[in-house]
Amino acid sequence: MAYSWGTVYKGERLEEATRRIVKKETGLEVDLIKHVGYIEYLNEKRFGRDTHSISLIFEAVPKGGELNHDNNATELKYFKELPNDLIEEQREFIKTLNFS
């Protein structure tokens, strides 16, 4: 499971934005399998003000490209267990997916 963050541009379909953002942040081209849910961040601070943002979560499989990272991350890796510093909303969402 991996998270990529980005913005949907005006006129861009959600699926197109998702593939674009994943490619930019991971180097991978992906096929989107299905939308699996969303995460709400109710008490975020962005640009000095309170915000409410929503992340849409898709299941995807790589179909090409080479795994690497952009300047948003220092490394990419797989985890057998959830990292301790995971954002709480993300941790709770992942638990609902029942990965084992």
Descriptive notes:
With 100 residues, the chain is an alpha+beta fold. The protein has one domain (14-96): Nucleoside Triphosphate Pyrophosphohydrolase (Alpha-Beta Complex), CATH 3.90.79. Helices cover 22% and strands 36% of the residues. It has helices at 14-26, 88-96, and strands at residues 28-46, 49-65. β1 and β2 form a beta hairpin. The longest helix has 13 residues, at 14-26. The two termini are 12 Å apart.
Q: Please identify which CATH superfamily we are dealing with.
A: Nucleoside Triphosphate Pyrophosphohydrolase
Our Rg estimate from Cα atoms comes to 14 Å
Low-confidence stretches: none
Helicity, in percent? 10-25%
**Order of SSEs, N→C?**
HEEH
Largest beta-sheet characterization: 2 strands, antiparallel
Strand content: 35-45%
Output the structural class: alpha+beta
Measured distance between first and last alpha carbons: 12 Å
Q: Which descriptor suits the 3D outline?
A: globular
* Count of discrete domains: 1
Assigned CATH class? Alpha Beta
Number of helices in the DSSP assignment: 2
CATH architecture: Alpha-Beta Complex
* Number of beta strands: 2
Strand order, largest beta sheet = 1-2
CATH third-level topology: Nucleoside Triphosphate Pyrophosphohydrolase
Average predicted confidence as pLDDT:
84
InterPro entries: NUDIX_hydrolase-like_dom_sf, NUDIX_hydrolase_dom
Protein name: Nudix hydrolase domain-containing protein
Organism: Candidatus Zambryskibacteria bacterium RIFCSPLOWO2_12_39_8
Domain Nudix hydrolase: 6-91
